[in-house]
Design goal:
There is one protein chain. The chain is mainly beta. The protein has one domain (1-94). It is 0% helix and 26% strand. It is built from no helices and 4 strands. The chain has strands spanning 40-49, 52-58, 73-77, 85-86. Strands 3-2-1-4 form a 4-stranded mixed sheet, with no helix packed on it. The radius of gyration is 14 Å and the shape is globular. The chain starts with 39 loop residues before the first strand and ends in an 8-residue tail after the last strand.
């Protein structure tokens, strides 16, 4: 996706205006799709600023400069919807 009003500033244009559908790109070496860069992913970690509780997100999104590293994290308020933040369902495999 392009950032900043559909310019090509992010250096990695694709055919989607915002996030791409799951499985739009190749699997990684572990057989997993979309492990970074489509949407930031909510984590369990909480962060408190004064009386507001925020939650940690990781991974970067289509709305970020590619210079954002995969080990980057941010905090966002839980009560607000964001089009560049999502979640990943996971389960332990016995």
């Amino acid at each position: 996706a392009y950032t900043y009003a559909n310019s090509d500033m992010n250096g990695a244009p694709d055919k989607w205006e915002y996030c791409a559908p799951v499985g739009s790109f190749k699997l990684n070496g572990y057989g997993l799709y979309d492990m970074a860069g489509n949407v930031w992913e909510w984590c369990q970690d909480r962060w408190t600023y004064g009386i507001e509780t925020h939650r940690l997100v990781k991974g970067g999104s289509w709305d970020d400069n590619p210079a954002i590293g995969l080990d980057e994290s941010k905090v966002y308020r839980l009560e607000v919807a964001y089009r560049h933040i999502g979640f990943r369902c996971v389960a332990d495999v016995p």
